[in-house]
Each structure stands twice: as structure tokens, then as C-alpha cells.
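Standup notes, structure subgroup. Blocker cleared on the adenosine-5'-diphosphate input:
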Amino acid sequence: LGERLPVSDTGDEMERLALSLNRMITRLEDALSHNRRFSADVSHELRTPLTIMRGELEQVLLDTEVDSATRVSVFSALDEISRMSKIVESLLAIARLDSGADSINTLPTDVSELCRWTVEQMHLLAEEKNIGLEIETRPLMVMADSSRIKQVMVNLIDNAIKYTTDGGKIIVTTAATGKMASIEIRDTGIGIPPEALPHVFDRFYRVDKVRARISGGTGLGLSIVKAICHAHGGNITVTSKDGEGTTMRVMLPLLLSSPLSTIPAPAEQ
Ligand code: ADP
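Run returned:
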């Protein structure tokens, strides 16, 4: 006690207030860390039974004497198991990132390379929906765990595609703002109503639960994105206009000591 708020030895009201505030903060921290451990343990414990269930059901499918009605039921059960496994894996990933149990392995990385890689991966998905996916980036060096930042980009572009209607447009841009690299994913999609904006990074939050379920959403994608950004010392923010589109902005600390932090874009031919 007395480490967070300076507690002088005067025995007055301020000292008592500081002491009780410190006690409250300690209790809150204990509760939070208990909560994170609990999520990690539960997710971990659910993995094995899910794997066993999947194995058992796959065995049923191998039996040639199983009738077609049973097959349909088994396939549907397998679908639900896949969905649950996805949720369990996501919860485990968030709990481990939040608690610091999962270390991220950062290396000097050009974020625009990661953006370009993701856009290439997602191009077909956007094309199928007749959505234009464009990229305007310039090299920006950050310390990043590239597989994790790729996951951030995949989740954000996947959302942009999911929540943009046919004929829409998505633009990925990068810029240096102060000491941060900013990556923006801007879409001309359905947008997010103002009352929902503060909650989109909360676990299991979905603006429209029915539509999100149909599109395969779990409401955990943005929570993972947020946990990864925080683990990098960065942040994510959202701005949106209902019915007009959404902009997700990822901020990551720039690698300022490197002469490669901001490499000028090649001159246009
Ligand atoms: P989900 O798996 O449901 O997509 P996310 O955590 O990725 O879950 O997103 C949470 C919710 O935020 C979504 O269900 C959706 O309602 C809203 N959302 C996220 N990205 C966008 C976007 N680009 N445009 C409109 N709504 C979005």
C-alpha cells in the first residue's frame, strides 16, 4: 500500500482517503487478474472435449451404414463444434494477450508491407462482392509481430467486406502522425450507429446479432484486434456514420530511432 498514491504520515482525512483508494485499486487489480486467469483456464479446459467430440462425430461419418438424416445432423453438430472452437480459441488468445502470458515477438517491420500482403490475400473475397479494395501506403517502420499485425489487418478488412454492400469501396492507407504509425481501413459500408460505437471493441458485442451470426461473426474479432494493438503499445479507434461507412484506425509506435522510419515514397513515373 502507499505505492500508487503517496500516503503521507499525517493521519488526516487525505491519508485515510489515499489508503482506501489504494486498497480499492489492489482489489480491482486482483479481480481483473483473477478474471483473466479464469477465462484462460476455461478456454483451455474446453479445448480437449471439443476435440474429442469432433473426433467422435467424424468417426460416425466414416460408417457407410449411417442414414442420410443422421449425416445431416452430424454435419450440423460439426458446424456448431467448429463455431465453438473458434470462440474458445479467440477467448484464449485474448486472455493470454491481456495477461501478458503470450509474448509477442517484435522485429523492425514495414507496416505498409503487411498491409499490402493482407490486401492481396483479401482481394478475391472483396471481388466476389463487387467491392473495390484499394491501398495507398508508404513505408513506415514499427516494431511489430508481423503475424499478429497481419491478423489485425485480416480481421479489419474482413469486417469491412462483411459490412459493406455490393459496389462499395474499401481503402487502406498508412501515415505517420507524430510518433505513431497510423493505418486506416475506410469503408463505404453500412456504418455503426452512434450508440453502438463505444461498445464495438467489447467481447461478444455485435451491433446486429442476427446478421452477424448469419455472416459467421462471433463478436470477438475486434476484441482480439484491440488486445494485439495494446500488446504492441498501440491503440485502435473507430469513427463511423450510420449508413455511410466506417473508419478503423490502428496506431502503432513508430520506430523513430531507425533511419528507415519514414522512407519517402518513390517518385511517380
Ligand atoms: P463480428 O465477428 O461480429 O464481426 P467483431 O468484434 O469483429 O465481431 O465486430 C463487432 C461488431 O462491430 C460487428 O458485429 C459489427 O456489428 C460491428 N462492425 C465491425 N466492423 C464494422 C464495419 N467495418 N462496419 C460496420 N460495422 C462493423
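Discussed briefly. The mean pLDDT is 87.
Next: hand off to the docking folks.
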